[in-house]
Amino acid sequence: MADKLTNQERRLLQVLAEESHYLSAENLAISLQVSKRSIYNYLNSVSRKLINAGIVPPRNINGAGYYLTSDSKLSVHDLLATKTDEADSRVHRVSPSERRNILLVALFAGERDITITRLMRITGVARNTVISDLDWARKELNNNQIELVGTKEGHVLKGEEILIRNYFQTHFSALMDGYEWLRKYRANDSFFEGKDTVGLNTMLNDWLHLVERQSERAFSDDAIRMIEFYYAFVLMRVLSGHFIPQNSFPSNLEDRRELRDKKEFGLASNLLAQVGVEVTNHDAESLYLESLLLSGQLRSVGSDEQDDVKTKVYSAAIEVVDSFQQITGFSFYDRSQLISELYVHLLSTYYRVKYQRQYRDGMVKAIEANYPDIYTYTELSIRPFEKLNAHPLNENELSLIAIYFGSQMYQDESHLGSALLVCSTGLGTSRMLKAQLESAFKGLKIVGPITKRNYNSIRQISEDIVLSTIPLSKKNKSVLVLQPIMNDQEISDLTKQLAVKGIVMPTLPANKISALLDVISDNAEIINQTSLITGIKEVLSFSVKPYSKKERGYQPLLSELINEHTIQFAKANHMNWQQAIALAAEPLLVSGSVEQSYIDAMITNVHNNGPYINIGDRIAFAHARPEEGVNELGMALLCLDKPINLLDDKHPIQLVFVLAASDDRSHLKALAELASMLGDKRRLHQLLDATKISEVEDVIAEGEKQL
After folding, report:
1. How far is residue 321's CA from residue 511's CA, in Å, rounded to a whole number?
2. 360 and 252 in one domain?
3. Is 567 helix (H, G, I), strand (E, B) or coil?
4. Residue at 678 is within a domain
5. Is 100 found in the same domain as 68?
6. Is residue 597, in this structure, part of any structural domain at all?
7. Is 462 within the bounds of a domain?
8. Which domain holds residue 106?
9. Environment class of residue 548 by beta-carbon count within 10 Å: exposed (0-12), middle (13-18) or buried (19+)?
């Protein structure tokens, strides 16, 4: 080709050549991670170069997007297969982030030949660039109490072994990226040359199947991938002589005893013995590997009445669901299923919290943006589970739990067509995606979710299509890859693809499409009728609106609701919890925000449902249904000088919040603020110690400065 294509132009053509439907400039911009203006420039340049080469350039359907004809796709595939000198010189060039990931993965594996010369040869960059990467790594690791030391043999890590492992587990994705680059482009010349990494992974895969059978735990596909990969590198460190000191993990003696009593301890010891580690001298390693097993995301778990942790987590799951129902007033259509699935998720969450391994990568933004109410209610309901470890959950763990509630709240039971759903993550993510799909496509029956392993074992797919969160090998039905949490644009794109395949109906019925074809054939020559029908269906499907968010309206800040007009202080002497709720709500009654019937309903709820309004350390959150006497949105706070009992001495309360919600959304911003404030121990203690209205207002204002 006379006019050489740039890297970005090649990527653009590759995306267009691999797609079976139209792509908008916005979608192309997202795929290439550039601006829409750049996309238009690339399209103009590519079109000119393709025309010069005798290839029909990308076509544009107004309002739909860009596509390549079938002939053009074939020509483009041939063109991309013939690499130019320019492309060849860049195809394996390592990016700055990849270089740093390669450095990290080599350091973690305990390799000793990490010299500047070796880094230059493997990554193909100059000496100064390698030195710059080492300086970056040194600062990054120092921030985590790990030292990067240069020796004659190369660079090595110094520091507490548990801190080194915690850092690299937290940055697991970077490890994967660095290793995959080496495996793909430097398989014959990498830091792991001569090491049997494939053999380790095979051994670990077999071992995990044994673990699942003997421990009655079934891991998610993502968990198995993580365990296999991370364990392989932990074993490399162990075989290089980097051990966790005896009696140092876990730090608590009782925790060590608890771990030794579990089946997983023997299984972890068996793995270490297989690679030649003397377990009796290094049982801290067995405990460490066991703790990772227990923290892995599960799909199912067997019943074991003798396991005290399982009993506590199951009871906490029931309490969390009860609390969520009481706060929201929502009745779950299948409460027992929700409790069962939430219990399975919380069991691994329990160990992640216990051993400081909470997820850092999650779906927080997607959940908070699309389901802010569910996220906030989850944050307020999770206290019974947090008490088990006396430690709060981070946003990522909360978002995963919110998915379980969301999947039931948005469930729709009307089904017609069929699609098989495959998901590599936990049950909650799968159920949320399933609920989204069923809500968006009312006539589509979603079968599953199943795991990739289940999918691979099926010979024939009976459903009309396969929808998956991960790439799959195609069987007898097409596979479409989706995001675990889809936004409006992604659902719209999926609608087009399903319409083209005839799985969902476009705006016009089939007889109208036939009529439209008749008109076209009367006035124009049809070269490819199949392609024309596909195009018509896709264009017509654009007007389908499968999902639309509710208008949220105005949502006041917490300071607009809890202020000098609604904050009170009182002595706790001779006051019971009923009087405290009534007194706390008095400003709302005086202002006309609520009727007396609402105060009576809040008190009756506690009598009927127990101390569910105790949502934290000395905190009561009283509320009832809007129809029980709410005239307008309001919140109030009563601060007592000392705690009083809510029903019994197991539930002391000192801060009594009252919420009068007039609908299901207007209070969400204030509620989210409140949850954040009460989850911050420092700010909570400031509230408990406050003696003046201005002090409470200052605590609230501090949080709002960060909004």
Report:
1. 49
2. no
3. strand
4. yes
5. no
6. yes
7. no
8. 96-185
9. exposed
Total domains, the chain? 5
In 3D space, the residue among 657, 410, 702 whose CA is nearest the CA of residue 559 turns out to be 702
Interior/surface letters 209-246, b for 16+ CB within 10 angstroms, e for the rest: eebbeebebbbbbbbbebbbbbbbbbbbbbeeebbbee
Report whether 433 contacts 482 (CB < 8 A).
Answer: yes
Strands 65-67 and 59-61, sheet pairing = antiparallel
Polymer length in residues for the chain: 707
What confidence tier does 581 reach under pLDDT thresholds 50, 70, 90?
very high
**Which CATH number do you get for residue 168?**
1.10.10.10
pLDDT tens string 38-85: 787 788 888 888 887 878 888 876 556 788 887 788 888 777 776 544
Query: What is the helix, strand, coil percentage profile of the chain, to 5?
Result: 55, 10, 30
Which own/partner contact pairs does 76-82 have at CB distance under 8 Å and 24+ positions apart? Answer: 76/13, 76/14, 76/16, 76/17, 76/50, 77/17, 79/1, 79/5, 79/13, 79/53, 79/55, 80/10, 80/13, 80/14, 80/17, 82/1
H-type helices in 358-487, by residue range? 364-370, 372-381, 383-389, 395-409, 427-440, 452-457
List the beta bridge partners of residue 646.
Answer: 648
SS3 185: helix
Please indicate, yes or no, whether residues 154 and 290 belong to a single structural domain of this protein: no
pLDDT in tens, 528-564: 656 665 565 555 544 433 333 344 467 899 999 999 9
pLDDT at 313 over 90: yes
Q: Against a cut of 0.85, is the pTM above it?
A: no
Which one of 185, 205, 226 terminates a domain? 185
Closest of 453, 478, 27, 542 to residue 228, by C-alpha = 453
For residue 66, the model assigns a pLDDT of: 82
Residue 344: the pLDDT is 93
CATH number, domain with residue 316? 1.10.1790
Q: Does 205 reside within a domain?
A: yes
Q: Are residues 570 and 665 in the same domain?
A: yes
Q: Show the tokens assigned to 41.
A: 């420039």
pLDDT on residue 531? 61
pLDDT at 391: 86
CB-based contact 285:277 (threshold 8 Å): yes
**Helices and strands (DSSP H and E) totals, the chain:** 32, 15
Asked whether residue 313 falls in the same domain as residue 289, the answer is no
Residue 382 DSSP SS3: coil
Each residue of 460-478: pLDDT tens digit?
888 888 998 888 888 888 8
What percent of the chain stands above pLDDT 70? 82
Q: Could you tell me how far CA 139 lies from the centroid of its own chain?
A: 29
Question: Angle at Cα 62 formed by Cα 59 and Cα 66, nearest 5°?
Answer: 35
Question: What's the pLDDT at 494?
Answer: 84
